[in-house]
Each structure stands twice: as C-alpha cells, then as structure tokens.
C-alpha cells in the first residue's frame, strides 16, 4: 500500500508553510534565502507526487527547471548578499534601508 | 506497507529539520538543517519512483547550492542573528500567515481525499533517466534552452555583482564613460548643425 497523493500534498503544504513563516521571522538575509529554498523544494515535492500519480514525465521536467532557477537564484542572491555586506558590515535585512525616505 | 512507513519516517525527518531551520539563529545550524530537509526529500523522491530527480536533488541542492551558502556563511564570519526587538508585530504577522497557509493546506488535503480514484498509475518507464532525457530534448527543447540562457545571465550577473574596482580602475571607467557621453554630445551637435 502506497501513501495517498493527499499525504504528499499535505507534507508539501506543511513544508511550504514553515518556509513562508521563516521568511517573515528571519532577519538574516541568508536565513531568508534558505527559507525560500525550502519553499521551492516543497513545490518540487508536489510536482514529483503528481508526476507519479498521473504517470506523466512533465512534472519531473518541471522540477529540473525549478532547480535551475534555484541555482541561478543562489548565484545572484549570494552575490547581492556579499555586495551588501561589503557596504554595510551586516546582512541584517533591517539595515538594508538605503532607499527608505 | 513499507513505502508508507518510509514516507512517514522521512516526512517527520523533513518537518523536524525544517522547524530547526527556522528556529536556529545561527546561520550555519540553519544551513545544516536545510541539508537534512534536502536529503529527506531526496529519499521521498526515491519512494516516488523518481531516481533521477533524487540524484539531482542531492547533487544540485545538497552539493552545489548549500556548499555555496555555507561558503558565504564562513566567508562573512557572521555572528548570531539578533533577537527581534523593533519588529515585534512580525511575530503576529508571521503566525497569521502561517495559519492561513496551513488552513489552505488542509483544504487541499480534504479536496484531494474526496476526489475519486487517485490510484497509482503504474508506468515503470516514467522517472527513469531515459524517459526524462527523451522528453527534455524533444518536446521540451525550447524551455531547456531558455534555462540555459537564464543560467548564463546568472553567471554574468554574479560576476558583475561581486567585482570590486580599484580606485584607479574606477576613475578609468568613469573617464571612459564621460568621454563616450561627450562624443555623443558632439555627434548630436554635429547632427543639429547639419
């Protein structure tokens, strides 16, 4: 007996919720970045689960695309974090208020 | 039966690691928890008959992206995240958002439970590297090429973002830019004169 599709979707929803809550709670740019990765992974899980239950390979291909976007996001996001740290010796998102006022 | 037991085992591990990711203030502990989530999800992908995605999950996420993140954490030598002081209302906001999302999740759960026949459609070829490769290079060729261009743009963006110019180089760049603008100005003047 395999676990039902709904249990995979529930796991994915719980992980996505934890990630979204983390983005709000974290003040550390790197912590927020990691929570976003967690949310992307939760979505990947739904793709793979649907791909399994409908026997369609498209879902797994989409996971591949999401992973490429995550890799691009890592390259650019970490570059931004390093550039920000260089200007104001912190990666606290509250200190990133240059455009405020 | 075995796959159900494995699913609950890895699901519990993934949720525990995700909670520890949000809970810890030290970014390094968060990063290690996130690697735990990735490994648990990869095991779940194996039980979902997607060995290729499971391998890529470990290679790209746990291997490449998290190594980059840990590298940056070590490079910046960060201290622990300060506790929330000014933004107390964010606690309420985050809790509310989380609650809404959780309610949505359980709504989906019930909707899917009530829908008829979600039995596994057993097709042994789906998820094998061969079928993914064939679909990738025939039906989905254009998206794959677009992703390639996206990755190239990300590389160029990353290089430009972290490049630091020496003051002399910076002056050179500024002078070049000013010269170009003056040239444009002269050309415009010339065109107006004509």
What is the number of helices of chain A? 3
The tally of beta strands of chain B, per DSSP, is 0
Distance between the termini of chain A: 59 Å
Shape descriptor of chain B reads extended
Structural class of chain B: mainly alpha
Strand content of chain A: under 5%
Total E-strand runs of chain A = 0
CATH topology descriptor of the largest domain in chain B: Four Helix Bundle (Hemerythrin (Met), subunit A)
Q: Mind summarizing the main beta sheet of chain A? A: none
Helix content of chain B: over 70%
Oligomeric state of shown chains: heterodimer
Number of domains of chain B: 3
Please name the defining characteristics of this protein.
heterodimer; A: 101 residues; mainly alpha; Helix Hairpins; 3 helices; B: 194 residues; Four Helix Bundle (Hemerythrin (Met), subunit A); 3 domains
Gist of the model:
Chain A is an all-alpha fold and 101 residues long.
Characterise the protein shown here.
The complex is a heterodimer of chains A (101) and B (194). Chain A has a single domain (5-91), classed as Helix Hairpins (Orthogonal Bundle), CATH 1.10.287.3510. Chain A is built from three helices and no strands. Chain A has helices at 5-25, 29-53, 58-87. The longest helix of chain A is centred in the C-terminal third of the chain and has 30 residues, at 58-87. Chain A is elongated, with a radius of gyration of 17 Å. The N and C termini of chain A lie far apart (59 Å). The model of chain A has no long low-confidence stretch (mean pLDDT 87). Chain B has 194 residues and is mainly α. Chain B folds into three domains: 1-122, Up-down Bundle (Four Helix Bundle (Hemerythrin (Met), subunit A)); 127-162; 164-194. Helix content of chain B is 78%, strand content 0%. Chain B has seven helices and no strands. Chain B has helices at 2-23, 27-47, 51-76, 89-114, 129-136, 141-162, 167-193. In chain B, helix 1 runs antiparallel to helix 2 and helix 2 (27-47) runs antiparallel to helix 3. The longest helix of chain B is centred in the C-terminal third of the chain and has 27 residues, at 167-193. The mean pLDDT of chain B is 83. The chains are: A mainly alpha (101), B mainly alpha (194). Chains A and B meet through helix 1, helix 2 and helix 3 of A and helix 1, helix 2, helix 3, helix 4 and helix 5 of B.
